[in-house]
Amino acid sequence: MRNKNLGYEIIRTAVAIGIALLISFVIIFAVSKQPGDAIVTFLTGPFKSMRHFGNVIEMMIPLVFTGLAVSVMFQANEFNLGSEGTFYIGAVAATFIAINVVLPAGLHPAVAILFGGIIGAIVGAIPAVLKTVFGATELVSSLMLNYICLFFGTYLINNFMRDTAAGSMVSHEFQSTAILGKFLPPTRLHFGLILAVIAIVGCYYFLYRSKLGYELRMTGQNPRFAKYSGINTVKVIILSQVIGGFIAGAGGATEMLGMYSRFAWQQLPGYGWDAIIVAALARNNPILVPISAFFLSFLRVGADMMARGTDVQAEVISIIQGIMILLIAAERFLAYWKQRQIYKDATKGEK
What we know:
Blueprint: H1 2-31, H2 35-44, H3 50-75, H4 83-100, H5 107-134, H6 138-161, H7 192-209, H8 211-221, H9 223-228, H10 233-259, H11 271-282, H12 289-309, H13 316-329, H14 335-347
Helix pairs in contact: 1-2, 1-13, 2-12, 3-7, 3-10, 3-11, 3-12, 4-5, 4-6, 4-10, 4-11, 5-6, 5-10, 7-8, 7-10, 8-10, 11-12
């Protein structure tokens, strides 16, 4: 049954994407003097060179981490939207290790990423504790926590790790042993891609092959049944948000050490907000997260190339995202087709 539901969700998502792209193409034809060139650039531009395709994978890596973090929490029906803040504070934590701790190459980034994940887990636990102890909704507390992370992290960077000799608000340069190695030149692909793959496999086996994962999913599907069947739902609520915070924090650390040589973010990078789109496209399934992350980063790179090479602005990507989310979030979208399939399967044995 789970495979049939997964198949239905994949078809449903694919149809939503197709409709969103079709509407976007109609808009491009309406506003552009060269719609054919714009659409071709949009769809094929990311594949025209290794560097452009590398840009897609580079953007995909942080989306995988934050998408997994959101998926784990959403599977438990915990609408924690704090991945943006935990991603940011994880990068700040990794910066501290990368600047101040002396370790050999290989071990140095591992310790920094682990530290970023631990700090992210602590931050991710805050909305869970507020909910279980004080009854505060995690939706509001996690949203506010994003900006606390931003301002506190910026304070730490500017007051304790800032390079005063630089001409801008940036940290000191990382030690060379802390930076993740690159491969596949001329791209900037780094070994964080391997960590992302490990995170995907780990999340899948945790959610679908472990007792704790089963408890987490059952609590999300039916908290009353889970409670009456002996599952400690309070533990699950906290656990889901701690794990989600750890993944997002480790993702922020990986992005910082893989793509930069010093901390320069003065604003939230946006990957935590994008994670909601990734998780929605993946239906909170870790195996589908890399596919949806790749698709979203492909759209972003294609839209950027279209904006630079034609007369269509990159904001068309916002139209595609908005339509996709509206259709995917609509419970009745293609529901009639699913009901027909259920009825056909139920009556198959009667014939």
